[in-house]
Amino acid sequence: MSTTSQTASVQLLRAQAHDDGFHSSDQLADRVHRGELLRVRRGVYIDAAAWLQAPTWRRHEIATAAEALKDDFALFCRETALRLHGLPVLNMPQALQVRTAGRGRVATVSPAPMTGQLTAAQFLRRYAARGPQTASGAEARLSTIGTKFVEPALPAGMSRAELRSATSRGTDSNPRTLLPSDALPDIRGPKVYRVEPAGLAVVDTVSRMSFVEAVVVLDAVKARADIDVEPWLPYLRTKRQHQRWQRAWAFADPRAESALESESRALLHKLGFPPPTLQKVVQTRLGQFRLDMCWEDQRVAAEVDGRAKYFDPQYAARREAHDIYYAEKQRREAIEEDGWHMVRWGKQQLLHPEQLVRRLARCGVVPVPA
């Protein structure tokens, strides 16, 4: 993925037979019983602390890698493919998405229990007895992510029945590409990931998303030169899919610099606010600064901040959070001295848009009547 982090690498362990006839599955299962490992997929294990301490998005990546390690022929699609191609998604899917050729296999499959024969409570007691710190909500985390098997995307000029028939005869195959192991750079295990081409994954997935979800993806797509969606547009088969795609594609803007900015801009549009100017450069006594978005007539600047800006090493550039906060304070004061009103928000405010409406209204930015 393009958004690498500086978190510790994770090693997946795969049960396998050895030349002497010994199979490591029994040994790995015993380590689960002792509270050392967790089973992510049948035959694929991970250090328990690495899983329990990982955030949601990280556990999704681990499960993706485990699925690829378990099944050499797993073909990832939809949101799972988008993430492997380095594209952001607003809402983490509840299951990995994998293509299946068989109509009878369309289903969401839950993997075997992560804790083997132990209950979650029993496992955590043994885990804690070894000394590791127990993560908050650890018991709820002791369930891995399932796999949702879906039929192939339908090409133009072919019915679902025709595609099923061609697939059963072996005369048709899903479009696919191979991504190297560093598609998930901090997870060691699979040698490659089989995934649908980025353009197909974008078209097939965005046409099923809400407007805000679609804009988060398409802003990032437009900012990249290596993704061509044009050849895959015939996969839009219904009028509704065309309308969803066209509306989001027309609105998407490559100048958005984060998923949170994209989500903010799309939500403001839905709420009826006039379109802001993106990434405007302003001159202050401390030099030039870029504003995430602004309304120039009202002299209102909006800054969209996520927690990662202060705590994720990728964004913090090895600076301490208090140093980043102080630099932001100086920047804000310099911009305000130039006559701008600064409004700052994060993910929490987007979950309660009425708060955002009130805050902008106090600065003179209000929705435009329809």
Number of domains: 2
Which structural class best describes the helix and strand composition?
Answer: alpha/beta
What is the straight-line distance between the termini? 40 Å
Count of individual beta strands: 15
Number of helices: 16
| Share of helical residues | 25-40%
% residues in beta strands: 15-25%
Oligomer: single chain
Give the overall shape. Answer: globular
Largest sheet: spatial strand order:
12-13-14-15
Report the C-alpha radius of gyration, rounded. 24 Å
Poorly predicted regions: 1-6, 307-319
Largest pleated sheet? 4 strands, mixed
Query: What integer is the average pLDDT?
Result: 88
Molecular structure report:
The protein starts with 9 loop residues before the first strand and ends in an 8-residue tail after the last helix. Helix 9 packs across helix 10 (239-251) and helix 9 (211-222) crosses helix 11. The protein is built from 16 helices and 15 strands. The longest helix is centred in the C-terminal third of the chain and has 17 residues, at 321-337. A hairpin with a 2-residue loop joins strand 3 (37-41) and strand 4 (44-47). The strands form five sheets. A four-stranded mixed sheet has the order 12-13-14-15. The protein has a three-stranded antiparallel sheet with strand order 2-4-3. The radius of gyration is 24 Å and the shape is globular. Residues 1-6 and 307-319 have low confidence and may be disordered. Helices cover 39% and strands 18% of the residues. The chain folds into two domains: 10-196, no CATH class; 272-362, no CATH class. With 370 residues, the chain is an alpha/beta fold.
